Amino acid sequence: VIGVKHLFESNFLSKFNEFTSKMPHSQAELYVKTSIRFLGSLEFFYTKNNTVYLNSVIDYLFTCLKNHPEQEILISKTIMELCDNCRSLLVSSIPNFEPILVEMIRNPSINNYTREKFINSISCIIQSIPDPEAQENHVYHILELIEKTSEPALQKASQESLGKDESEYSISLFNSLHELGKGLSLPDDFEEDEPQLYNQFCTFYKNSNNRIQDKLVRLVNLFAIEIPSLAKNLEVNEKACLIFKVGLLEEFGPFAFTNNVVLQFALSKKSQGISFQIRTYLLELLTTLINTGLHSKVDSSNILSQDDVTNIVEHFIVQDYQNISEDPDSV
Q1: Are 276 and 323 spatial neighbours (Cβ–Cβ below 8 Å)?
Q2: pTM for the whole thing?
Q3: Mean pLDDT in residue range 262-276
């Protein structure tokens, strides 16, 4: 640890940047790749030294992302892992991420994987904010950015005039909603480790105006139901189900939809007439809904009733038995 600290105190990242910038790009690539892997392995060091060095590492990684796009998968994974494992240390740095966030969402030339993993990274940090209202504001801001950026492509899609690159970009923006939900998932030990904070968040979200979920439902419906060309896309349908699924295990939070919201989506989707694969996605979602919805919860009104279960079985098993019987896994 002392050796690593001395390394950082010597301002080695700046010196390393200057060193590699004078090399031929192909030669610098090997050095940069090695540095990224090294920096990604130092979680133990960052957690002992607060944010003194972590912020400079994040800045360096984003510089590498611009200068060495051929390493973007490795860099994106490293940023995501650092933001996940050191999330509480980076809360104060959220404003510094804003220009990068806007660029990632609005720039269609950004690699889709990089965009989606960055949304996951920033949402991991947002999850660690100890103020539920501040957390909710940050999440809503990201949703607004995604919604406004998606509008031109959605307009084209509704007119069947969306090009291949535009389609992939708009679907990546939609996929980012799932990455947002994954990053916001509560740590398993949150209630046990922080009972007072847990109760504070629970109270806030139980009494919130649901503006986040309203916007999420609107976006999911636009992509997966209302625009025919996107509603048939398998990736869109898979992500739509995963967006609803990601919060089913949680008592509260931006993605903790009520059972009724999830069931209504599934019924609306089925009424369109769906392919075999989309039916599989819906069945997986509804299986999770039943497994979680029958358990006792803080909000007793959000427990599945016997009528709800009967409704699911009738619409998705009995009426579709001929179709699902062809797939042993579904049965």
Answers
A1: yes
A2: 0.89
A3: 91
